Amino acid sequence: MKTILDVERPIIELEQKIRELREFSSEKDVNLKSEIEQMERRLEEMKRKIYSNLTPWQRVQFARHPNRPYTLDYISMIMERFIELHGDRLYADDKAIVGGIARFDGEPVMVIGHQKGRTLKENIYRNFGCAHPEGYRKAMRLMRLAERSHMPIIIFIDTPGAYPGIGAEERGQAHAIAENIRDMFSIATPILVYVIGEGGSGGALGIGVGDKVSVMENAYYSVISPEGCAAILWKSDGGVEEAAAALKLTAQDLLNFGIIDAIVPEPLGGAHRHPEQAAQILADHIRADLKQVRSVPVQELIRKRYDKFRNIGAYEYAKEDPQS
Known about the structure:
By secondary structure, the chain is α/β, with parallel strands linked by helices. It has helices at 9-28, 33-51, 56-63, 71-78, 120-126, 133-149, 166-170, 173-184, 201-205, 226-234, 240-247, 251-256, 275-294, 298-310; strands at 80-84, 97-104, 107-114, 153-159, 191-200, 212-216, 220-222, 262-264. The protein has 2 domains: 6-53; 60-310, 2-enoyl-CoA Hydratase, Chain A, domain 1 (Alpha-Beta Complex), CATH 3.90.226.
């Protein structure tokens, strides 16, 4: 079943009319070239107007679109000879986080990322991209392997958040995420992080510490989902659009605040409409980022990584009142 977002409906309807006009022209042997070209110009103008004025909530919807490329999609499109590695050597193999060795531009890399499904059956298998503690422990095991093998690590984030179930909490969900955040600061190999869809809270941060952190144009990165924020503030999901705007979760907001290092542009219409183009744009960014981080000595890279995250945010010391 094709998913059509409300914001895209006028575009899709006009595209359908153009297709019908082409078919009519071909079947009836009628020259409608000028009419079709006029409609195509109108379509292009409509696309630019709509896609350049997306609200934060609309970008959240784009980030969640089921046709948007997931981690394994990007791996298959821009990497070669991927060998998936499984298990945390403690409990189980979490299907919500995938990882393994691949070749990018002929060079070995360790690639790790959240993985969702497109059908209900696939999403149940992947737990809707919500990782358990064993997923984060698997990710750290693979990072340590990459460190020993002197391979750069490429991470794709796409999760609503870490799984909040009782079993996950019993097995140390918070502890696993906290350990990963701590240990990623000392991994002695380059780490590149890309938010390709949803970047939900600690579930994203559990594999989100890197030398460069980038967010795709229609992805988001936030401490909580708009629905969760609205439920806390207004006890309903009626304020999701207001919550999305207040959370400052878009790529541009994050760049303005210094939370991320770069925005990865998407083709006009988004990655869900042009996945192969989006993959090539992402590959170009990975290529440029790898070249940059590889030129920095490892110990300096670790220091800069630590400083980068320590310097996020702004605060002031309150002046002591001499009368108190």
